[in-house]
UniProtKB/TrEMBL annotation:
GO biological process: riboflavin biosynthetic process
Organism encoding this protein: Nonomuraea jabiensis
PANTHER family named among the record's database cross-references: BIFUNCTIONAL DEAMINASE-REDUCTASE DOMAIN PROTEIN (PTHR38011:SF2), DIHYDROFOLATE REDUCTASE FAMILY PROTEIN (AFU_ORTHOLOGUE AFUA_8G06820) (PTHR38011)
Positions of the Bacterial bifunctional deaminase-reductase C-terminal domain: 3-188
Protein name in UniProt: Dihydrofolate reductase
GO molecular function list: 5-amino-6-(5-phosphoribosylamino)uracil reductase activity
InterPro entries reported for this sequence: DHFR-like_dom_sf, RibDG_C, Riboflavin_Biosynth_HTPR
Amino acid sequence: MRSITATMFVTLDGVVQGLGRPDEDTSGGFTHGGWGPRYNDEVMGRELAKGMAKPGDMLFGRRTWEDFITAWGRATDGNPFTRHMNAATKYVVSRTLENADAWQNSILLRGDAVVEVAKLKAQPGDDLSINGSASLVNSLHAAGLIDHYTLLIHPLTLGGGKRLFDGPAPLTEFELTGSVTTPKGVILAHYTRR
């Protein structure tokens, strides 16, 4: 059985919305987009690269997959993240996409996210990673399908926005398996479901 690891950039008050740029996700009137890049540094890059160095497939919700196509799918630089994302098999969960042809090595999973991901997880193959895709992470967490979390906890609060663990979910305990603090105050915390 495959394991699923979710990597999420999150504020101290649990917000995961609009990390990268002001127009990334303005739903619900969110005006704080682009809060994350000022905290990037060499330590964060090195730690994220460790995760990218492991073989594995990727899992996306439609919105994040479409956003990543622009950021990574068309890039031709020598960035190791670009190489990893373009080479990986990418499963995109969507009820509205007609196909996943817009980004190489992408496979469309139609239908209910929990049902489709549970079937995928039960198959033999590489482990799965999710980067972003907060709605998908919330659904999979509530169904008990996520095995590991890497949370990049940023030292700021936004007071509003989509939160990581928003909505109904079962009581779940985790074990802290490692942590690193960056010079800019971001805590990378690795958790495994007990």
